[in-house]
Amino acid sequence: MSDRWRWLAALLAVTTGVVVLVKTPPAASLPRVTPLWEQRQPISSFAWDGRSLWVTLDGEPVICQTDPDTGAVARRIPFVTPDTAGSAWDGRWLWQIAYKDRTIHKIDLQSGRSVGTLPTPGQGMCSGMTFDGRHLWLANFDDARIYEIDPAQGGKVLRTLRGLFESAGLAWDGRHLWHGILVGTKTHDETPPYAGFVEERNVADDTTARVVPLTGVGPGTAEWLPGQGVSRRFWWYDGHHKRVVRVELPGDLDWTRVASAVVLLGLGVVLAAGRGRS
Fold first, then answer.
1. How many Cα atoms occupy the beta-carbon half-sphere of 216 within 13 Å?
2. Beta partners for residue 182, in sequence order
3. Residues with Cβ < 8 Å from 4, sequence gap 6 or more?
4. Contact 269/63 with Cβ under 8 angstroms?
5. Is the whole model's pTM more than 0.90, yes or no?
6. DSSP bridge partners of 221
């Protein structure tokens, strides 16, 4: 190979390696937050069924089928109480917390009727719920605990994880539990703003995988459905700005891309060294 072509090949290998590294997002990078619609009345729960968000509002005894991008309401289902605080979709039923009644309603979305109830776990009231493909998880803010329950066994408590009084919603991404946490005092009757963050929890050993800041964090849900892989897209209610936001989280570090970049950089060094010896 002539010196000219050896030099061009070395330059191309090094340039390509640098580009691959630059385009590989670090696992600890911040999320991308996209505002979707203004929501002056606070949201008390979200659930995603693959096409629509099912949303409840503080103080309203209805569940709203909502467009995930615009917030337009296509349908309203009456609910038994205005005191709602957490919902989850299991692929067939919508589960909705009535927190003052300390019950979870199983709702048939086709008819809009509640077809069964479960007791909420713990001694206090719950705010925040998600479904992991088999079981429901609920955040009990009075107990400062997160409970895993089995709806097929009448709401039997399977285990508990550490929680906080400042819990502000739960979401499941297909692998880990996401726990919204407010910063500052939470009394449930005061007006936002709040600062906050979401904590990614590995429920296998109850460890924190990462913490992501999120202004005014409230109820949230992941763009995940039973049977799917891991999702990195969420909806959360931002009580500070009174809006719904889409949150796209960075994935884990792609070691295949890193290895490819290292190989290309090494090839460039070898070619450049060969040119220098010729």
1. 19
2. 196
3. none
4. no
5. no
6. 235
| Single-letter code of the amino acid located at 227 | G
DSSP-derived 3-state class of residue 222: strand
User: Longest C-alpha distance within the chain, in Å?
Assistant: 84
Give me 57's structure tokens: 């509002």
Residue type, 179: H
Positive/negative CA dihedral, 177, 112, 242, 233: positive
Query: What element of type H or E holds 209?
Result: strand 207-213
Q: Which amino acid is at 208?
A: T
Which amino acid type is present at position 225?
A: L
In CATH, what number is assigned to the domain containing residue 87? 2.120.10.30
Question: How many domains does the chain divide into?
Answer: 2
Q: Are strands 207-213 and 94-98 parallel, antiparallel or unpaired?
A: unpaired
* Whether residue 196 is found in the same domain as residue 80: yes
Residue 219: how many CA atoms within 13 Å on its side-chain side?
26
Whether residues 14 and 99 fall in one domain: no
Q: What is the full per-residue pLDDT of the chain (278 aa) written as tens digits? A: 555 555 455 455 445 544 444 454 454 467 788 999 999 888 999 999 999 999 999 999 999 999 999 999 999 999 999 999 999 999 999 999 999 999 999 999 999 999 999 999 998 888 889 999 999 999 988 888 999 999 999 999 999 998 877 777 899 999 999 988 877 655 545 555 457 788 899 999 888 888 888 877 888 899 999 988 899 899 999 888 889 999 997 765 444 554 554 454 455 445 555 555 55
